[in-house]
Write a structure and sequence with these properties.
Number of strands: 38
Radius of gyration: 24 Å
Number of domains: 1
Number of helices: 4
């Protein structure tokens, strides 16, 4: 897999190490640099943390629209969607809960403070104008504070380079889907700019499975604007601004209880969800004393606005509408002291304020907020260009529950002559209770499924959820780095998980009661038998257990696998094949979900340097399956379009 050797300033706000985008480390000769695991550009082979990297080239080859579709098939990554385009989409890293993953977009914390669980909904996040995505597994609270108890997903948008260039892309296909994208980018030593706009419309499928008598389609309309602007007045000083706006209108379905006492989604023709998201960041970058001292000072702003409108109808005579607003302001100041090539000390300070307000039946929550101060220190050492060590510690001071200390250490041992690399890491993390969990006396919580309401109660005395994790892995390259194989074992322990406990016949209280254990193996293999052909495969076997019930964690398969084959033909054509297998798992209430295999294909051809034709087919085998009990998934579908650039 090709990985860019430089990231630009945007990459300095968060990314990481062991490279395997479904796959693994790029050839050493490319000297790939990653940032998430250490917050500094570091050669991938020198880092002991476990991370996947998806490049802009990968995105172009696969032609996937939402980011969630790109994440499918990666080792240790589970994607769960409640229906088609625009429907609730959750991502689980190595079995941790979806709200245990911190999502960064150009360094902005994208998790929704108004979401009852504090998670990020991937439903409306499109791949347009994205340069790379890095997925860092394991607790990362040492560098990123709360919400990173299970890992970090960092998304970096494209930085303008070279002469001004305009691009336009139009595509359409199944489910009356239409998408138009336009952008302009460019840059020189003084200024750089990149701006992209996208409009996506689709009639969609029924969110409630049509095979269960739900014929009404649930459409989606998505408007996304992304921008990145930079100024470099001197070689040692630069300013950058990034923004991302998303406006979405989605038809959603309701739910009922069947004769077996299970929540089952059903058509609701009047229920819609309007959402807006805004992510802004401005930062300055300064180096002093011949790059010995590097400083990055940034300010970020996150805004989420969700409104569910629903008129009564025969299927749903008692609708449950509501509006929710969440915001987060963050100031962070990072320092990197490079004493030598072998020694880098990183330390910094971060302050953030998260706030929310909500209005729904039985819940009118005025604006509530909490603030957190974080102080972190990390040391990176290398010996003989073979042994690379990283250790860090962090103190967070939360305005409600007080102080919490977390730590992380990693090691990588590289034997260049043998093509062998050994890696290992150990870390702790914490997840602060959400604003809803702390303040909302009664709230409509749906965790990873916004369509199954429950009436439950808050607890202002909650403690943070905690995690402890370690992993160890080995990688072996062969055929002059044209092939590689590796295996990683991981062990996660989650404690003080927040769950509801019945304290009276009609009273449920949130308390720190649950715990979970997760352990498993991740295996990958990369092979380039021909210059034009690349093969990548991975397999994950994972055992999860809820310590309270003794049952497996819901929606996490014990086995899953991914395979990608990419073939360049006639110098200007590209063919990509993807196979994703997801094994048996169970949903809420112990409902079994059968295994499934999905096959996708994409083809493109550059007619000229300025004109390209492309097409893709999803679910080629027309597999019928469910990721969430009662919710539908798209059958076989096709899309195609054209792209211009000048």
């Amino acid at each position: 897999m090709k990985i860019f050797s430089t990231l630009g300033l945007g990459g300095l706000i968060g990314l990481g190490s062991v490279v395997y985008a479904g796959e693994q480390q790029a050839p050493k000769t490319l000297a790939p640099m990653v940032v998430t695991a250490t917050r500094t550009p570091t050669p991938a082979q020198d880092v002991g943390s476990d991370i996947s990297v998806i490049t802009a080239e990968d995105l172009a080859q696969r032609q996937r629209m939402p980011v969630s579709e790109v994440l499918r098939g990666l080792p240790g990554v589970d994607v769960v969607q409640s229906g088609g385009l625009g429907q609730q989409t959750s991502v689980f890293l190595r079995g941790a809960n979806a709200n245990h993953t911190l999502v960064l977009i150009d360094g902005v914390e994208a998790n929704d403070p108004s979401n009852p669980s504090g998670s990020f909904d991937f439903a409306n996040l499109l791949t347009d104008n994205i340069e790379r995505i890095e997925i860092l597994r394991g607790p990362q609270s040492t560098l990123y504070g709360s919400d990173a108890i299970g890992g970090v997903i960092n998304i970096i948008t494209k930085k303008g380079r070279g002469k001004p260039r305009v691009t336009a892309r139009v595509e359409g296909g199944s489910f009356s889907t239409f998408k138009a994208t336009g952008g302009v980018h460019g840059g020189n030593d003084l200024v750089n700019y990149s701006l992209t706009g996208t409009r996506l419309e689709s009639a969609g499928i029924s969110a409630a499975d049509s095979r269960r008598g739900n014929p009404e389609k649930d459409g989606d309309r998505n408007t996304t604007l992304t921008g990145r602007f930079g100024l470099t007045p001197t070689p040692n000083f630069s300013l950058d601004t990034t923004l991302r706006y998303n406006g979405n209108h989605t038809d959603i379905d309701g739910s009922t209880v069947d004769n077996r006492g299970r929540f089952v989604p059903i058509d609701d023709p009047n229920s819609t969800l309007d959402s807006q998201q805004l992510f802004l960041r401005g930062q300055g970058h300064l180096t002093l004393f011949d790059n010995l001292w590097e400083q990055i000072l940034g300010v970020s702003f996150t805004h989420h606005d969700r409104e569910n409108q629903n008129r009564p109808d025969p299927q749903n005579p008692f609708p449950f509408p509501g509006s929710f607003k969440g915001e987060k302001i963050k100031v962070d100041w990072q320092h990197n002291l490079r004493f030598s090539k072998e020694h880098t000390l990183t330390f910094g300070f971060a302050w953030e304020e998260a706030s929310m307000e909500a209005q729904s039946p039985g819940s009118n929550l005025p604006r509530k907020s909490v603030d957190t101060k974080g102080y972190y220190l990390q040391d990176q050492l290398s010996f003989w260009d073979k042994l690379f060590l990283t250790g860090g510690i962090r103190l967070d001071d939360h305005s409600i529950f007080g102080s919490k200390i977390t730590g992380r250490t990693t090691a990588a041992l590289v034997f260049d002559g043998l093509g062998l690399t050994l890696r290992g890491s150990y870390g702790t993390g914490f997840k602060a209770p959400t604003l809803t969990q702390l303040f909302d006396e009664r709230f409509n919580t749906t965790q990873d499924d916004r369509n199954t309401p429950q009436l439950e109660y808050n607890n202002p005395d909650l403690s943070p959820e905690m995690s402890r994790s370690w992993d160890i892995g080995v990688e072996q390259s062969f055929w002059n780095d044209e092939g590689a194989v590796g295996v990683t074992y991981f062990d996660n322990e989650l404690t003080d998980l927040i769950q509801f406990s019945q304290v009276a016949a009609d009273n449920f209280q949130l308390i720190n009661i649950d715990a979970a254990k997760i352990r498993g193996w991740e295996i990958f293999m990369n092979l380039t038998p021909l210059e034009e052909l690349t093969l990548r495969g991975n397999y994950t076997q994972m055992h999860t257990q809820d310590e309270k019930t003794g049952q497996p964690l819901v929606r996490r398969p014990e086995r899953k696998a991914g395979f990608n084959a990419n073939y360049r033909f006639l110098s200007k054509g590209n063919l990509h094949l993807q196979v994703v297998y997801v094994g048996h798992r169970q949903d809420v209430g112990g409902i079994p979900l059968p295994s499934y295999t999905v096959v996708n294909a994409a083809i493109s051809y550059e007619v000229t340097n300025y004109f390209q034709l492309f097409a893709r087919a999803n679910n080629l085998l027309d597999k019928q399956y469910q990721e969430v009990f009662g919710f539908g998934t798209p059958g076989i579908s096709g899309f195609g379009g054209i792209e211009f650039s000048f």
